[in-house]
């Protein structure tokens, strides 16, 4: 060998053969430096330690498998084979696999992505949108066959006024990130939902990986409606969680947050309704008390009675909305359950092959359900009608009226202020009457307050009109 | 003319949140003892009308689960939750 004169090519080929036989499938540790990537996706870099430096290349096929960004200064362990780059006569490590030292590749990739998107402002608090007051039409991006979807529907179906639109997506493995991102985009563009849940049940970091990918984070950030994330368990945090408007601990929790929001809005409406009735009743009681104090005589005995009737009706009005609510909710639930049963029935019976039995049973069931629903509906309608009768305008229709001094708009509440000859205007259910005061029961008194019984004539005046 | 039509349109499209706030404001005014009986009746009527709107908004949708297809259309979805 020593006496032979080599050609360059032959020498390099010989050295290459020696290198490849002696240094294939080796692992080298060092610090990454001088990273660059070619247009075709090949990665070029060097590994160095305090004394030496080694050229490395990861061909595009290997580079694509890298989960994290290869950065200068990173301590890694590279696996590969030594080979000679013939054109320059330099040897290099052709890398097939790179692992960061100190933590897993996925963990590193997660940290890098988090740092990058955070720097971009994607997680900023002022980007977070509040939940809609009425999160009623709820979009869900998750696997159509996963436990997460069942868990979420279990919660959402407790509410009769929630509509769910599921955009199914593979949530794990190859292509999962693309599917999740495109499902988000489709839901956002559909205009069918007020809010979106991105959900997936628990799993390893690897299982949840799609939710750490940039394209999913971007789809969440650009979704036109607020996004709630419910990914993995309480302890799992993904890039999607950081990007979402609201992070729920689990898919179930995400559904619960939305139901709670909806129920809060409903509660506020019902509370306001109840208080309206209560406050109006209070005003009426107050008016009655003043009237009673002003008259307090046997001749006016019927007036408090009338107010008592009004009071009772208003008390009923307080309860009615609640009854109505309960009734319609129960009826709705019953109908839904029955419908679901009806839908399942053909499959069940067809499986047994009893076609005719199925038809007759289906019909029976349908008749039964229809009966139930009609009943419930009638009950609701009649209660609603009853409620309408409690409207204050109907008070006039029941024969009450409002009296004012001519030229004034505030209702007359105290006969003590009247003088003979003054003009009164009385508003009835239909039209108004202008009349003159002939005589007040006690012309001399200034307060109009009486403890003794008065002439019956005055009683008839009030029976005809001025009571509230 | 156009302006009037526009204002009316905006009013029907009033957000639930705004309606609810107006409703709660009316309740607040009705709680005031100095309000006369006639005004109280007016407030009650306005309030009940708003509460009715809010309620019908809350009952706008009925329970349903559907699947969004690639084409952007939906179809009913059967899922066993029990």
Provide an overview of this structure.
The complex is a heterodimer of chains A (about 475) and B (about 80). With about 475 residues, chain A is an alpha/beta fold. Chain A has 4 domains: about 100 residues, Beta Barrel (OB fold (Dihydrolipoamide Acetyltransferase, E2P)), CATH 2.40.50.140; about 150 residues, Rossmann fold; about 100 residues; about 60 residues, no CATH class. Helix content of chain A is about 45%, strand content about 20%. Chain A has 12 helices and 13 strands. In chain A, helix 4 runs parallel beside helix 8 and helix 8 packs antiparallel against helix 9. The longest helix of chain A is centred in the C-terminal third of the chain and has 51 residues. Chain B is rod-shaped. Chain B has one domain. The longest helix of chain B is centred in the middle third of the chain and has 22 residues. In chain B, helix 2 runs antiparallel to helix 3. Chain B is built from 3 helices and 2 strands, in the order H-H-H-E-E. In chain B, about 60% of the residues lie in helices and about 10% in strands. In chain B, a hairpin with a 5-residue loop joins strand 1 and strand 2. Chain B is mainly alpha-helical and about 80 residues long. Chains A and B meet through helix 4, strand 7, helix 5, helix 8 and helix 9 of A and helix 2, helix 3 and strand 1 of B. Strand 7 of chain A pairs parallel with strand 1 of chain B, so a sheet runs across the interface.
């Amino acid at each position: 060998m020593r006496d032979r004169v080599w050609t360059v090519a032959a020498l390099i080929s010989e050295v290459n053969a020696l290198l490849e036989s002696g240094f294939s499938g080796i692992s080298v540790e060092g610090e990454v430096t001088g990273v660059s990537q070619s247009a075709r996706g090949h990665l070029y870099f060097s590994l160095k330690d305090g004394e030496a430096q080694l050229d490395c290349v990861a061909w595009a096929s290997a580079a694509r498998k890298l989960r994290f960004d290869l950065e200068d200064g990173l301590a890694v362990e590279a696996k590969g084979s030594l080979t000679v780059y013939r054109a320059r006569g330099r040897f290099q490590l052709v890398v097939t696999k790179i692992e960061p030292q100190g933590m897993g590749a996925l963990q590193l990739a997660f940290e890098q992505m988090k740092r990058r998107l955070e720097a971009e402002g994607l997680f900023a608090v002022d980007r977070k949108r509040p939940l809609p007051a009425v999160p009623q039409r709820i979009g869900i991006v998750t696997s159509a066959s996963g436990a997460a979807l069942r868990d979420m529907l279990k919660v959402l179906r407790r509410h009769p006024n929630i509509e769910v639109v599921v955009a199914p997506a593979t949530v794990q493995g190859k292509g999962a990130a693309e599917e999740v991102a495109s499902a988000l985009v489709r839901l956002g563009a559909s205009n069918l939902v007020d809010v979106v849940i991105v959900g997936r049940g628990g799993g390893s970091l690897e299982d949840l990986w799609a939710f750490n990918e940039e394209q999913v984070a971007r789809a969440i950030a650009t979704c036109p409606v607020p996004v709630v994330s419910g990914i993995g368990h309480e302890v799992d945090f993904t890039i999607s969680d950081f990007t979402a408007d609201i992070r729920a601990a689990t898919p179930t929790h995400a559904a619960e947050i939305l139901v709670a929001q909806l129920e809060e809005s409903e509660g506020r409406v019902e509370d306001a309704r109840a208080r309206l009735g209560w406050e109006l009743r209070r005003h009426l009681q107050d008016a009655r008390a003043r009237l009673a104090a002003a008259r307090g005589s046997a001749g006016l005995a019927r007036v408090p009675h009338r107010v008592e009737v009004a009071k009772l009706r208003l008390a009923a009005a307080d309860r009615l909305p609640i009854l109505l609510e309960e009734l319609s909710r129960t009826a709705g639930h019953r109908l839904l359950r029955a419908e679901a049963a009806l839908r399942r029935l053909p499959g069940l019976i067809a499986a047994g092959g009893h076609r005719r039995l199925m038809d007759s049973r289906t019909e029976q069931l349908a008749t039964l359900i229809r009966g139930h629903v009609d009943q419930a509906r009638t009950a609701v309608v009649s209660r609603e009608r009853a409620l309408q009768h409690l409207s204050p305008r109907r008070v006039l229709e029941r024969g009450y009226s409002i009296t004012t001094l001519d030229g004034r708009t505030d209702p007359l509440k105290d006969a003590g202020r009247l003088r003979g000859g003054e003009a009164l205007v009385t508003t009835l259910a239909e039209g108004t009457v202008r009349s003159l005061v002939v005589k007040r029961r006690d012309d001399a008194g200034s307060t109009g307050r009486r403890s003794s019984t008065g002439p019956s004539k005055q009683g008839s005046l009030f029976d005809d009109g001025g009571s509230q | 003319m156009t302006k009037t039509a526009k204002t009316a349109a905006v009013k029907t499209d009033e957000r639930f949140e705004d309606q609810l706030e107006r409703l709660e404001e009316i309740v607040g005014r009705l709680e005031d003892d100095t309000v006369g009986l006639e005004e109280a009746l007016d407030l009650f009527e306005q309030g009940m009308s708003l509460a009715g709107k809010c309620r019908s908004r809350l009952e706008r949708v009925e329970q349903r689960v559907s699947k969004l297809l690639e084409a952007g259309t939906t179809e009913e979805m059967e899922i066993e939750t029990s």
